[in-house]
Amino acid sequence: MLHSNRLAPEKVAKNFINNHFPHCDGALLAGSVVRGEATETSDLDIVIFDNATRSSYRESRIVSEWPIELFVHNLHSYRDYFESDFKRARPSLPRMVSEGIILKDTGVIDAIKSEAKELLAKGHEVWSTETITTKRYFITDTLEDFIGCNNRLEGIFIANTLAELVSEFVLRTNRKWIGASKWMVRSLKEYDIQFTEHFIKAFDNYYKTGSKRDIIRLVDTILKPYGGRLFAGFSVGKK
Q1: What is the pLDDT of residue 139?
Q2: N- or C-end of the chain: fewer Cβ atoms within 10 A?
Q3: For residues 48 and 17, is the Cβ–Cβ distance under 8 A?
């Protein structure tokens, strides 16, 4: 639930642009408030395009009781971020631009939105066979550590690492975008809701009961189409 006494997010964002970036070329309001997913702690993500800005930067402020995250770019720097997001398969800026509500536009926003939507539709680079092999090895190594771990505290952290590695593997091998923190879960749901429920249940059961069985089965099922666990014979960097 949001603060009932706070001004509406779009009004705060527009006022902020008018007061602090009156000469910018364009601005967008993005994030959870645009998607209808805002919570008590949500902030306002504002993407600003200002060709007078020499280089891109990020800044945090609080205005009218709203935390604001600014992502400031000129009309060229955003493309470097689009490219970086594409290569790491985490489309943070393209997603904000594509979903963003226009706060100000001097005629530049449509083209930038089109670039963002094209990149999102295109999808990320396909993992090579070599990359998949390497990922299999590190997942196997972490899984074996998890299986052999008898220390509950260490086991929790190993499970966290395993969850991150496996979720990345599932999404990348299925040509889906990935994300960090809450966006990883959202990305899994976009890929397959039923699989995500099974995935979360397996890890949640371990955190609650200490039983590793469901996680081990889950990981083995995911790795099976790619050759299963990998240790013997793996090599990297050998000349």
Answers
A1: 98
A2: C
A3: yes
